[in-house]
Design a protein that fits this description.
This protein is α+β, with helices and mostly antiparallel strands. The protein contains 5 helices and 7 strands; from the N terminus they run H-E-H-E-E-E-E-H-H-E-E-H.
């Protein structure tokens, strides 16, 4: 069964929004504010000129996608919901029995920019605060590397 709008998005806590601001400060200008948080872990931000920008947390990109909220919501309904919200993958996650608690989103086990896939097997529920902080940090560390660069991670105590 297709996910509802309520299942495709969530209302983040102020702590999650703070982690978003801190983790992605290197990419998100202060003038942008969170407009909608997707269950897929991405965020849509609104600029002072009312344009909407998509923060793709899996790829580490900020893209202007609409000139206004109305244009954005219309595009979501018409054809971009599948791409922007990962609606088909969220449907599969929900159908497989995975669910989100309040202030959680789905996070990648292996980020797409590092070769991870947009599939049920590669996504898990995680607190939005942790996901925004972690994904922002990883992308800030790799943003200047050339395509195909080899990297390694050391996971320490948390």
């Amino acid at each position: 069964m297709p996910a509802t709008w309520k299942q495709l998005s969530f209302i983040p806590s102020s702590a999650a929004l703070q982690c978003l601001r801190e983790g992605w400060s290197w990419l998100i200008p202060e003038s942008l504010s969170a407009f909608m948080c997707a269950s897929s872990g991405d965020v849509f931000l609104e600029a002072e000129d009312q344009s909407i920008h998509w923060l793709d947390t899996g790829q580490g990109r900020l893209t202007r996608v609409a000139e206004s909220r109305e244009e954005f919501l219309s595009a979501l309904r018409e054809d971009n919901g599948a791409e922007w919200l990962l609606a088909p993958v969220i449907d599969q996650l929900l159908d497989s029995g995975k669910s989100l608690a309040p202030d959680q989103c789905f996070a990648y086990k292996v980020m797409p920019i590092l070769g991870g896939t947009y599939t049920v097997d590669n996504m898990v529920p995680m607190s939005a605060s942790k996901w925004y902080g972690f994904s922002g940090y990883v992308h800030s560390q790799i943003k200047d590397l050339p395509d195909g660069a080899h990297i390694s991670f050391t996971i320490g105590e948390v």
